[in-house]
Design a protein that fits this description.
By secondary structure, the protein is mainly alpha-helical. It has one domain. It is built from seven helices and no strands. The chain has helices spanning 4-15, 21-44, 49-55, 58-68, 74-96, 123-128, 130-149. It is globular, with a radius of gyration of 17 Å. The mean pLDDT is 90. The structure holds zinc ion (ZN). Zinc ion is lined by residues 1, 34-35, 56, 91, 95. Zinc ion binds next to helix 2 and helix 5.
């Protein structure tokens, strides 16, 4: 589980230049949704670990995104669902690249218990990069702001 800053930074750099701000917000929400829903539950109630596993799965997130779509006006509903799903997909993509001490994530739950990951980095590795992500995002936003004000041609 890379930290939420890393998840958000990934979608920031993937969307900042071609997706408008309101739509990006939904992608950002989707990018943190699996961990925001499952981790606090696991921390507060460790005995509910099996349920947190189920929350952090593509099937659960598909259902949740479908339900969340109903909070949007009918003209925005489908687009909102796709944007949230794009963020959730980016989240799972990054999670699939990390190593695990235990079994890892059950991507096929409830249809199977197979796990797979690329094992490119440990979860805490992403945390070391958090200040760098924040700095890069701030530099990008500063440069974009200066460009908008005419300071950079
Ligand atoms: Zn995650």
């Amino acid at each position: 589980m890379p930290d939420l800053v890393t998840h958000t930074a990934l979608v920031y750099f993937g969307t900042r230049w071609w997706v408008n701000a309101p739509m990006r917000v939904l992608i950002y929400i989707g990018a943190v949704l699996p961990d925001v829903l499952s981790r606090p539950l696991y921390i507060l109630k460790p005995q509910w670990y099996p349920y947190t596993i189920a929350i952090h799965t593509p099937v659960f997130m598909l259902g949740l995104v479908w339900l969340l779509g109903y909070f949007f006006h009918v003209t925005w509903r489908t687009k909102a669902r796709w944007l949230l799903l794009a963020g959730v997909s980016a989240h799972f993509l990054l999670d699939a690249l990390q190593r695990h001490l235990d079994n890892g994530y059950y991507w096929l739950f409830p249809f199977g218990w197979q796990t797979f990951s690329e094992g490119l980095f440990w979860p805490e590795t992403a945390t070391y990069w958090t200040p760098i992500w924040i700095g890069l995002v701030l530099i990008c936003e500063l440069l974009l702001w200066l460009k908008k004000k005419g300071g950079i041609k």
